Amino acid sequence: MSLHPLFALKQTSMKRTLAAAIAAATLVSAANASAQTLRFAHVDPDDWTTSKKGAAGQVFKNLVEAETDLTVELYPAGALGGETELIEGAQDGTISIAMVSGAYANFCPAVAVTDIPYTFPSAPVAWQVMDGEFGTALAEHCLQQTGLRTLAYGETGFRHFTNSVRPINSPEDMQGLKFRVQTIPLYLEMVSALGGEPQGIAWGEVPTALATGVVDGQENPISVIYGNNFYEFQDYLTLDRHVYGVDHLLINDEIFQSLSEEEQAAVKRAAVVAGTTGRAIQQFNSAEGITKLEEEGMEVTQPTAEQMEAFREAAQPPVQAYLTEELGDDAEWIERLSSAVEEASARF
């Protein structure tokens, strides 16, 4: 039996409408499924006992998944690229969350002020500053520039000098020594100001450079010095704490805004706990690492307050002058940080 033409037309129209509705529902479902999974990436190992970012990632995942229906996928050890690639991935949304350190200054230049040498006298002062008004304002500033929301701060820890020639108690002791540094202008400026000869060498080439004498020394946090067996090539460690490295726990803001209010609150809480956990792991490994490095035969020097002031007076003004020129209007963040550190230092 043939259908009335009008009925057939209506049936065809209904089928098309139904097909369109199914397709739309499928797209919405796929979008929701995508929104339910957060991709968290960093460059550190996954082992929470030795890795600050590894510990932070695992804590974040466990808390978010316990409190929400969100799923968190972890991509540690540079599985999705180096820090620059992770930040770019977070900006375009292929990565939801990235936990990064120094590379963020290439995207939000004001971040570089936290690397001004000898700015933070202790970790508790750094925590007060980054978790207080200064850190909140910096996060908002960077959100406007990058589209990335800072959920929390962690730390890579204080950096120290090692070398194979002699103990370093003052800037004069660095004269003539070649130090491997990151290929970042601020670090080159700092070592030059202290009297050393900075050598920008890629990370993968550092052990060979130390073993063959291409450089006399290097600078890194304690956990990196011990974890990479630098004691095999270096005899002297100076605990000068020249730079305090900040970790930034960043989320793509569009992804964050797509979450429900309850999910956003859970993500923010988990991030703060994650950052705090990373700090704790870093502090534990640093304290334990000093003892281990001494057991491996390194001579450890702790400069006096007067000696630390000599380091600060030599390195800080040239780096501040360099950053003032480089940052332009953002140079105001130098003074904002200095004021925040002075206020926080009064509490400790």
Automatic annotation (TrEMBL):
Database matches in InterPro entries: DctP_fam, TRAP_DctP, TRAP_DctP_sf
Pfam family, one: DctP
Keywords: Signal, Transport
Annotated signal peptide: 1-35
Family statement drawn from the similarity comment of this UniProt entry: Belongs to the bacterial solute-binding protein 7 family.
Protein name, UniProt field: C4-dicarboxylate ABC transporter substrate-binding protein
